[in-house]
Amino acid sequence: MDFDVVIIGSGPAGGMAAVQCAEAGLKTVLLEKVDLPRRKVCAGGVVKRAIQLLPNDLDYPIESVCDTVELRLHDPETSFKEHREDLVTMVDRAKFDYSIIQYAEKKGAQIFDGVEVKSVQPHENHVEIVTAEKTYTTAYLILAEGANARIANCFWDDDRVLAPALESEVMLPPEKLAEFQGIARFDFDVISSGYTWVFPKKDHISVGIGHFSTKKAGLNKIFDAYKQQLGLTGEYEERNRKGYVIPIKPRQAPYMKQRMILVGDAAGFADPITAEGFTYALKSGIEAGNAIVKGNNPDEVFELYHEAIKEDVVQELNVISKLSKPFYFSQKIRKILFKRYGERLCRGMANVIEGKQTYHKALSKHDFIARLVLGSN
User: Is the peptide bond before 37 cis (omega within 30 degrees of 0)?
Assistant: First the structure.
């Protein structure tokens, strides 16, 4: 056996799985198909509850910190703000992800970048991983491939819902950038089924749009109109406009098969309302690693992993999925919710971001919203 654990993918889920396994003394290797650090299309807003999952001594570069979350509607013009300390930490994904990988390496994990996995073959007592140069054997394989999930899709039905998104960086002078600093902004009716965002960084803002319907929406056209609405005229340079997909519905369980474990976007673990995936990537990566460390055999690993993610990940995402349907697919209901409960929604979102409560607990405090949402399925 070459390794105790092989991890495919160098995002936060894969990185934290590597940390857990290497720290426990397991022979661990992480495979990444491109050279590290690699660029990742992402808004780069790490919410407070996700930051709390990181090792205390992890050193990672910060672009900016937002103490305010703002929810906006434009028909009619409505804005709700909630202020808390360090609600959202803005990062450069390439640097953030790489800091976790370097931390895992310090703990003893081996990092093989520029290595593309060609195929995977599970066996009763091990998993075989074939690359262009070499074949490796491992007791367990963690699939942290991200939304693409090429290997995972060979062994699991891909019943995730993948939402198209568009994101770019708009370079701004200090006086213009100051208009956006300190606020993580979400606009909920620029697009009928989805939202747009503005996240401030050191010398630019990340502007993006997520579309949660199966209908074509012409994202580039809507994106350009949103920039105009923000006052971002042609005088401000735009860089790296790119599209990608965000999972807004997880796969059906199980999340482990034949010594292979799904984590992060590959499992479909992301918030269907905000599309925030850091929390669930870190949580699932940590718990996958812990399950392998503690389990004496595949059956124990299976039980440990599924029990660990049952409430905080799987059940929570199912609740959020129900909540997202009336919120995104009925403009009438969305307007009612904002009109009657806008301040509470914003406060509740801040509580979730901080990790003070879950969506499920937040809903339980508001009978009308709970009946509307949980009864709508």
Answer: yes
E runs forming strands in 123-259: 127-131, 135-143, 161-171, 183-187, 194-200, 204-211, 238-249, 256-257
Please name each of the domains of the chain with its CATH number. Answer: 3-58+92-158+249-319 (3.50.50.60), 64-87+160-247 (3.30.9.10), 324-374 (no CATH)
**Digitized pLDDT (tens) for each residue of the chain, 377 residues in all:** 899 999 999 999 999 999 999 999 999 999 999 999 998 888 899 999 999 999 999 999 999 999 999 999 876 678 999 999 999 999 999 999 999 999 999 999 999 999 999 999 999 999 999 999 999 999 999 999 999 999 999 999 999 999 999 999 999 999 999 999 999 999 988 888 889 999 999 999 999 999 988 778 899 999 999 999 999 988 999 999 999 999 989 999 999 999 999 999 999 999 988 889 999 999 999 999 999 999 999 999 999 999 999 999 999 998 888 878 777 777 788 888 888 888 988 998 999 999 998 887 766 666 666 665 555 44
176 three-class SS? helix
Contact 279, 49 (CB under 8 A): yes
Residues 344, 23: Cα–Cα separation, whole Å: 41
What is the rounded distance in angstroms from the CA atom of residue 119 to the CA atom of residue 95? Answer: 29
DSSP state of 312: I
**Beta partners for residue 113, in sequence order:** 32
Structure tokens at 312: 């905080």
Distance from first CA to last CA of the chain, Å, rounded? 48
Cβ atoms within 10 A of the Cβ of 90, count?
22
CA pair distance 181, 201, nearest whole angstrom: 8
Q: Are strands 28-32 and 110-113 parallel, antiparallel or unpaired?
A: parallel
Question: Looking up tokens 């999952």, which residue turns up?
Answer: 53
The dihedrals phi and psi of 100, each to the nearest 5 degrees, come to: -70, -40
List the one residue out of 236, 274, 247 whose CA is nearest residue 359.
274
Give Cβ neighbours of residue 105 (< 8 Å, ≥ 6 apart). 111
Instruction: Provide the token pair at 86.
Output: 């360090």
β-strand 45-47 against 77-90: which pairing, if any?
antiparallel
